[in-house]
Amino acid sequence: MSSSNQRVDGEQYSNFEFSEFLKFDEWIEEDDSSLAISDSSHNPVYRARVVGESSGTISPPERRSGEERIGREKKEAKERVAFKTKSEVEILDDGFKWRKYGKKMVKNSPNPRNYYRCSVDGCPVKKRVERDKDDPDYVITTYEGVHIHQ
DNA sequence: CGGGTTTGACCCGCGC
DNA sequence: GCGCGGGTCAAACCCG
Question: Would you tell me the Gene Ontology cellular component terms (predicted)?
């Protein structure tokens, strides 16, 4: 991963409290509504959240091989936070190390969808990056789960 | 050498 | 019951 953009947001995200901010259901404009689009490589202009149904529990990712994954129980829906950011590169450095584990093409969009996972052991955090179909200049980054480490 | 990235195949849930 | 879509894993390759 070679991110040409210097990381100046590491602390910015540290202050992020997903569990608290998760309160929206649609794209909401940030205070930077003016879309000033700072020169900073990335600045979340939009924030959306889609918590896993609070009432409708979704089955956890139980892989095939019904023998090693079995045992997982549905504790609570994982948090899903989506950020719409204007960026040229989809590899936004949020202060964590991500390992790409898959790429898929969306049928509704000519743009591929990249799947990332936290390299830290025990970190069940997953990241999904996709380019906006209507706004190629924008990148939608969806975070899933919470980091067990800072 | 290690870690990370890549692409295809595989799997699962749901819809029809 | 089968098909589609989306998601994940895995082997191989590349880079530092």
Answer: nucleus
Say whether the CB atom of A80 is under 7 angstroms from strand C. Answer: no
Closest residue by C-alpha to C1' distance, nucleotide C15: A1
Task: Give pTM, 2 decimals.
Answer: 0.67
Answer yes or no: are the C-beta atoms of A131 and A122 closer than 8 Å: no
What is the rounded distance in angstroms from the CA atom of residue A28 to the CA atom of residue A47?
Answer: 6
User: Is the distance between the Cβ of A104 and the closest atom of strand C smaller than 7 Å?
Assistant: yes
Three-state DSSP at A14 gives helix
Q: Which amino acid is at A7?
A: R
* Strand B contact at CB of residue A6, distance < 7 A: no
Q: What is the helix (H) or strand (E) element at residue A100, kind and residue range?
A: strand A98-105
Nearest protein residue by Cα to C1' of nucleotide C4: A107
Q: Which residue is nearest to nucleotide B10 (CA to C1')?
A: A64
Per-residue pLDDT tens digits for A121-150: 878 889 888 888 777 778 888 888 877 777
In what helix (H) or strand (E) does residue A20 lie, and over which residues does it extend?
Answer: helix A18-21
